[in-house]
Amino acid sequence: MASKNASRALRSSLRQLSAPRIQQRTFAAAVSAARPAWQKAATPAFVQQSRGMKTVDFAGDKEVVYERDDWPRDKLLDYFKNDTLALIGYGSQGHGQGLNLRDNGLNVIIGVRKDGQSWKEAQQDGWVPGKNLFDVDEAIGKGTIIMNLLSDAAQSSTWPHIKPQLTKGKTLYFSHGFSPVFKDQTNVDVPNDIDVILVAPKGSGRTVRTLFREGRGINSSVAVFQDVTGKAEEKAIALGVAVGSGYLYKTTFEKEVYSDLYGERGCLMGGIHGMFLAQYEVLRERGHSPSEAFNETVEEATQSLYPLIGQNGMDYMYAACSTTARRGAIDWSARFKENLKPLFQELYESVKTGKETQRAMEYGSRSDYRQAFEKELEEIRGMEIWRAGKAVRSLRPENN
Ligand SMILES: NC(=O)c1ccc[n+]([C@@H]2O[C@H](COP(=O)([O-])OP(=O)(O)OC[C@H]3O[C@@H](n4cnc5c(N)ncnc54)[C@H](OP(=O)(O)O)[C@@H]3O)[C@@H](O)[C@H]2O)c1
């Protein structure tokens, strides 16, 4: 029902993006006028600013954010001039962060196992065996900063072998708090005489790379687990900028891993997939066609409404829809929240107690994990909803 209005609103907002600034202001002002005063007051404000660091008021809570402006390329090159960045693992993050570091001119080498898929992929990306591509041990031996971007399960299984190589003076870098935070399960007990830091891009490694190439930067979390030199935080921020971050949000290893595992199981991926399936199935059981069920569940969401939330927030999306759609959606959002909150509490508990870690480790340690995952993807691809989606996508204007 929201569809016509929202599609119209999206088309209109897209037109606004290419429209002269004066018209954009008129449209923005119209939507903004629909916002209550308290919401206007909650707009983030820079309450304090020194070069490269801001304390930002996020809806009443003040948080520290670092920005890349304080770390221009020359300064990065000078800061890391005596370092060799040994990036081990070349999955999604290894690819994105590694190529960005290389393009920034830093001395970066890759360490992966020689018989693996990553070895081939690294070569395809121009890493040269013996020059800047080595097996894991050799890379760690040469590195001063060890960037552990192996899969989380592999970080655990390889740890007994890797730990003795992390000698005093080296720095250990992660992109997830997983291994050290859940050390009782992962056995990743970091040596107590090295700095241990984290930069966790809030997006896939492919996005880390794409945004860098576009001259933009991804948002990342930054944290220090152990500061031996007194320079750990500074090093983490500099590395965060070097791998392609635009803004770095200060957090802790614990907070990063809890929120990350929770979010991806919830609204980011698992929860949203579950909602799509539940809504679609009811529509089909009530006699709606696959195309109608898909359009009202996924297509309109991803193509029309969610981009509006992304652009300007939930109130903006509601404001762009019909009075009828708005009324029902606001009423039902309370029911959904009420019913789903206990499930989210259960999920957070499952993360905090390490149950999710256990599950991820068991799955990721299977020798056939790639094949097992492919089998699950095949099942998802084969679901009626996603087969219907394929047909609907083929009818999008840009595909015709
Ligand atoms: N992907 C994301 O979007 C994302 C976002 C933020 C943070 N992170 C974090 O970044 C880190 C890396 O994640 P990722 O997604 O880039 O990589 P991944 O796909 O989870 O891991 C791939 C790498 O691990 C290697 N590997 C797996 N098992 C191994 C073993 N037993 N011995 C040696 N190497 C092994 C693979 O090498 P082979 O090819 O040889 O198997 C490959 O290079 C993780 O801590 C993850 O939580 C990921």
Structure write-up:
The protein contains 21 helices and 11 strands. With 400 residues, the protein is of the alpha/beta class. The chain has an 11-stranded mixed sheet with strand order 1-2-3-11-10-9-8-7-4-5-6, with helices on both faces. A hairpin with a 2-residue loop joins strand 2 and strand 3. Helix 1 (2-18) packs across helix 16. The longest helix is centred in the last third of the chain and has 30 residues, at 323-352. The chain is globular. The model is unreliable at 3-43 (pLDDT under 50). NADP nicotinamide-adenine-dinucleotide phosphate (NAP) binds at residues 89-94, 112-113, 116-118, 149-152, 154, 157-158, 175-176, 178, 200-201, 204-205.
Keywords summarizing the entry:
globular, binds NADP nicotinamide-adenine-dinucleotide phosphate, 11 strands, alpha/beta, disordered N terminus, 21 helices
Briefly summarize what is shown:
The chain is an alpha/beta fold.
State the separation between the terminal residues, measured CA to CA: 25 Å
Q: State the helicity in percent bands.
A: 55-70%
Structural class by SSE content: alpha/beta
Give the low-pLDDT segments.
3-43
Report the count of strand segments. 11
Mean pLDDT, all residues: 89
Shape: globular
Radius of gyration in whole Å, from Cα?
24 Å
Major beta sheet, strand line-up = 1-2-3-11-10-9-8-7-4-5-6
Which cofactors or ions or other ligands sit in this model?
Answer: NADP nicotinamide-adenine-dinucleotide phosphate
Per DSSP, the total helix count is 21
Largest sheet: 11 strands, mixed
Estimate the strand proportion. Answer: 5-15%
Binding site for Mg(2+) 1: 260, 264
Family: Belongs to the ketol-acid reductoisomerase family.
Subcellular location: Mitochondrion
Catalytic activity: (2R,3R)-2,3-dihydroxy-3-methylpentanoate + NADP(+) = (S)-2-ethyl-2-hydroxy-3-oxobutanoate + NADPH + H(+); (2R)-2,3-dihydroxy-3-methylbutanoate + NADP(+) = (2S)-2-acetolactate + NADPH + H(+)
